[in-house]
Sequence to fold (246 residues):
Amino acid sequence: MSSSPISILSQTDFNGDPLDPDLLRRTFAQLMDEHGYVLMVNVPDDFDQVKFCRSLGSFVPNYTGAVVGDVRPEPGMDDVYHAGNTRPLTPHSEGYDFTVVPPRYIALWCVSPASGPGGETTLADTAPWVAALSDDERSFLLDTEFEWKTTEGVNRLGLDLHTKHPILEEHEKGMIVRFSCNNLLRADDDPVVAIQDRWRDNFYDHQIAIDYHRNDVLVWNNWRLLHARNAFTDRSRHLRRIQVAG
Fold:
């Protein structure tokens, strides 16, 4: 079941005038801290998304090396699990296959929304799930290194990434959660399977759905929130993406 987002920030005030930049930044920070994501609406055409993302931290390149990536259907990717097609994406975090700390923030902005049904980015907050772990489960997820692999679509780009990380990692700026429904390598009888299944079910029970309009900007804390995508049919859907170290 999906619900509508509540962490929404308008870039214009009640008179339709641009919001004061300092007030915009303060409100953004407050909403991000409380909810772990911010959807910015009423975004003018001249808004500099790259400059705004730079204010959050240093850039983390996408798999191709491009800092600003395009998320849209790509030739030759329709038969694999990959963001570059119209198929659904399962709940996951970004950067579990990086050897370094994963990006803290992910920003998506809408160049062209999908017409017709589908195409929503869905989000769910892991903070209550982590808080609900038993002491043994928490220690298990903090102390056990799991093997992660990259997606089929990234393999097709010529990258075959394998890393080892725990699911939970304590960091001075907050807890890091790594998660994937299909790229965490484990045996069927591994105790992590029950936790993985529970969190996947929690995601679908508590997800919010972002239905994009042109110029909307969505930013979320990738250490805290999982995200997924609903399938769609309109191949003109086009988002841009930046990863930020924070």
Observations:
- Residues 21-35 form the longest helix (15 residues).
